[in-house]
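Margin note from the TA: students keep mixing up input and output lines. Inputs are the sequences; the output is the structure of the whole complex. Example:
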Amino acid sequence: MKRILSLLAPCFLAFSAYAEDPKESDYYTITAIPAPDDAVIEGGAIELIPDGRVAVCTRRGQIWMIENAAEYPDKPAKWTLFAEYLHEPLGLAWKDGWLYTVQRPEVTRMKDEDGDGRADVFETVNDDWGINGNYHEYTFGSRFDDEGNLWLALCLTGSFTAESLYRGWVLRINEDGTMLPTASGVRSPGGVGFNASGDVFYTDNQGAWNGTSSLKWIKPGSFQGNPNGNIWFPFAKGALGDRPTDPPYTEEGSRTITERGNISQLIPPAVILPHQRVGNSPTGIEPDLSEGKFGPFAGQVFVGEQTHSKIHRVYLEKVNGLYQGAMFPFLEGFGSGNIGVRISKDGILYTSGSNRGWGARGGKLYNFERVTWTGKVPFEIHEMRATPNGFELTFTKPIDKSTATDEAFSMEAFTYIYQKAYGSPEVDQVEPTVSVASVAEDGKSLKLKVEPLTKGHVHALVAAGLKSEEGAPLLHNEAYYTLNEIPK
Amino acid sequence: MKRILLFFSALLATGPVLSQDDAVMKLGQQTYQLCVACHGPDGKGIKAGDLSMAPSLHGSKYLKLEDNTLATGIVLKGIAKEDNKYVQAMLPLEAALNDEQIAAVIAYVTKEFAGKRQKVSPASVAKARKTFADQKSPWKRSDLEDMLKAEQEPKLLSNVTYSIYEGKWEELPDFSQLTPIKTGKLENNLISLEPAKDIKGGFGMVFEGNLSLPDTHEYILSITSDDGSAFVVDGETRVGNDGIHPASTQRIKNKLEAGEHTFKILYFDGGGQRFLSSYVRGKQGTIWISEVRSEGKAKSKSYDPIPLTARNPGEAIVHRAFLPDAKPRSIGVGYPDKVSAVWDADNLNLAYVYRGEFMDASPNWNARGSGSNPLGKDRVKTAQGMPLQVLESLDEPWQPISETKVKYERDTLDPQKEITINVKHPDYQFRGYRLDKNRFPTFKYDFKKLTVTDRMNPEEIEGVTSLVRTIEFEGKADENLYLRLADTGSQETKDGWIDIGQKMKIKIQGADPVTRQIEGKKETLVPVSGESSITVTYRWNAPLES
């Protein structure tokens, strides 16, 4: 019998171009860039310097400048220590010859005036928020927006309470040193960043008032859901208007969709990242502005995942004035817990992170890694957008239309309890019926009819049966769409 | 030969031929005579007044176990006397009895007093001798209870096999590409490095088998290793703990379904210490899946010190971290010549100076980071709180630091709580610092219309390494503005120094100091004018003792 099978095997190969399922590594290459021996690169944020250097700040308070990060190993990577012993910096941004960093206590801008490669000027740009010595009071910072603002997301004290000024808020710090309170309701952020159109998002971690982790849109003036920081409204001098009504502190909790009706400032997570299913701890946020150099996902957003040592891919759209969209698995197998994420115009994704204090699957204490596209287009769901009666999927490659049957798809929908308790189980499960409504002539998109669509639910799609024209299954056949609004 | 002779002589003495089992029981009964003095002929324990000489063997949980290892361990090592519950300690019998005698006495007491004869043999006793070889003193009852708990808890793993690989790695290799030098089965279904004990130098091990979980639950999977390891369930790495490192623990929550899973534990040792332990924590609590039931050294909260030293001789270190006895925005400065300062960017003021070694960053750079630990000694607290104030008269007290109370509802509407928070003083703004060629910082802040710079240099003054602080004021100063330099001691001495207590004197140049006693504080103030400079020398009364 064994012999017969081995005789048949070449025939199978002849019929199918894919002897085995496609692998992520066929399309994207992860390269670890080795750091100097005595360095501990527990990366918190990454910035690209106009002269081509890559800067990374670390949880130990160092800032390194790396030359040839893109060229390694063809050219040796050269690491230069720009600054050290800073206070756990988690933001890095370059502007007009200054390198800005977001330390726990302040936004600092640095310059190397004497030209020895080490910063010697450390100017405090703004320190209008509180810290009290609790390790959990992290401050994450973005790059600059077009108006010269850094966006800061301030973790709660101990991730539960707000015992220092503006804990649980998003602040905008302008390069002129002024601070503008921007949003409340933050719990425990992991990163702040932009989408391709320059709107600002942050990741928030599962915990009190967060049934699961998610990517949240920082709409100025919004309340992101955790009421503990709302005690700071009297200090904000009306910048955010009146304090939002508290969500119910009852044992049974509520649902975000319900409370949107009661709390006008409450904004739902743009993209839910279902806890445990896709990760445990989302971090850095970065749009792909490389116009195709990083593969077929130009304009989409990439999100770091610390615990699972992964990078997610996110498609965002605005429906009825709110952001929502789909999360797709993208790449796993990083060396440690990714925190900082940055994509260059040349289409190189850099990530760096740590597993200190919070374990990560990668297993190493820290990583500094680069992701490059191999040039081969993976067969993936490219976009997943909501329609009045279902979803439209586009693909990176034409599909085999004969495989676009109702049976090729399955879907479950669920949400989470919006409650003071830590996290939430998946609740209010719905099993919608999925049918293929139409397939585009070019095989690059199709429409699914989904009955029912449930507003406020994550719609978890599995397209297990779909094949490309070349006969390959999807590289990742799962997508998680957060349906805050149903388009009309 | 001797053993055979003994056996025959026993046969002769007892007349009728005994079955092998009867022979064991006979030997057991004979051996038990050693125990009778305390446990009694009936195994119920000899009474001694209100107390017993020893516990009754009838209720013993250790004797009711299927496996004889623990009972054997007790006979071998004895039990320490930790309280007055029993009159006697249990004596260690490992030297007094041979394997046959111990096997026989356990068989005898379990059959006679515990209701069911334990399966025990001289071989299993010999094995127990090895297992407990490192136990050098009698058991504490708490150790025994822990081991009993381990024995009774459900086994999550089954069909556990191991493969050992030889090699030297700095991170986990792809074991699937390697050929093991040895494979085997772990009968007790607990992960153990024991099978690799004879391997010198670097090696790797892969354990695999089935993992059976009672509930669908968010389990904590924990793995402690020296060096690298990974915990894989159903083909997916759930916890990574890779790389060369001392025993360190990684724990990650994973939602896992009730029922059967496959697992793998990957491990490598790159040389030096070896350690591997792992547990699964679910609804039933912590269940160890390794023979070693602790997180080893990683459990301890003390870390190897990470002393901070300057990159180049003659340079200072500026270290921003949570530091004791200063506000959270504190900045440690380690100068050459073993003098250090902590400058407080919340209060815009020097918080303290000290000497000796500078700083241990290990508490800050391990785990989640709790702040650094200044080393050294002879710490002198300089004037606490904000540095500047307008005093209409010298009877006006110094303001306390800037705080406010906030009414706060923690996660529940009732009861309310009031918390005190630091708020920035509206008259001050920190502006950062600039490093000179030796990396010495000059701190800068605004006070109303004044810009203040504050820097220190180490300098030897009359045989003592001291700190000379220069404070410069640019811009316009309010009338009657004072700088407070000390809030202790403040005794002027004849030679122009001011004794601030704490075994330190200071000397002020550039302004005439005022000393006063107010609200129990002995203060040294200096009047401040715009476009001026004040120099303060901080000199310990004696040189640093090594």
